[in-house]
């Protein structure tokens, strides 16, 4: 696939996410359109990261975990997205490394970053409100707890399968456990 065609596909996806009405009850309007989708549109994650660092200096890993916690596990940005974004923000002069301990950089906002954040305050507020709304699907966050649990099961299966093939006995055991849980959920 040519680089041009790849970029066109991305812009078409971005256009789709912008066309979905803000009143849509589904979280896919935020860029997380199923398998392989993104939670944030272009530039949104950069603004979220900048605001988090403006709240207090943070390490990259803390940013990943903070976003994941704010969304109760429904989404977690990958290091392959967060660390290049931190590098970009640093190159733009909006954040700077305050200290380095054990190879981990602690990022702090700069005056340029504060100015950029002030210029995008409404957009940042809307992003955080959207994240809060998603995390608050239910008053107690139960929907997101369920999504997190399903995500954990999927990851556990992937990790086990990555270690090598299953024996027939192991496969039947896993399938039986999952089927048993599904039947129990149906009866609740």
Automatic annotation (TrEMBL):
Sequence ranges assigned to domain Transcription regulator PadR N-terminal in this UniProt record: 49-118
Region described as Disordered: 1-35
Gene3D superfamilies: Winged helix-like DNA-binding domain superfamily/Winged helix DNA-binding domain (1.10.10.10)
SUPFAM superfamilies in the record: Winged helix' DNA-binding domain
Biased segments, Basic and acidic residues type: 9-20
Pfam families registered for this protein in UniProt: PadR
Name this polypeptide is given: PadR family transcriptional regulator
Source organism: Roseomonas populi
């Amino acid at each position: 696939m040519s680089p041009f065609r790849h970029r066109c596909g991305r812009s078409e996806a971005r256009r789709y996410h912008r066309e979905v009405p803000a009143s849509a009850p589904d979280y896919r309007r935020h860029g997380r359109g199923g398998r392989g989708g993104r939670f944030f549109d272009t530039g949104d994650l950069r603004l979220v990261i900048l605001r988090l660092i403006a709240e207090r200096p943070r390490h990259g890993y803390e940013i990943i975990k903070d976003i994941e916690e704010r969304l109760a596990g429904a989404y977690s940005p990958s290091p392959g997205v967060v660390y290049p974004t931190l590098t970009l923000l640093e190159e733009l002069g909006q954040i700077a490394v305050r200290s380095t301990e054990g190879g981990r950089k602690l990022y702090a906002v700069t005056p340029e970053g504060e100015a950029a954040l002030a210029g995008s305050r409404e957009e940042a507020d809307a992003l955080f409100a959207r994240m809060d709304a998603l995390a608050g699907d239910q008053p107690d966050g139960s929907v997101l707890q369920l999504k997190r649990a399903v995500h954990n099961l999927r990851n556990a299966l992937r990790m086990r399968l990555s270690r090598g093939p299953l024996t027939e006995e192991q496969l039947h055991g896993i399938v039986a456990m999952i089927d048993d849980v599904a039947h129990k959920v149906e009866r609740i």
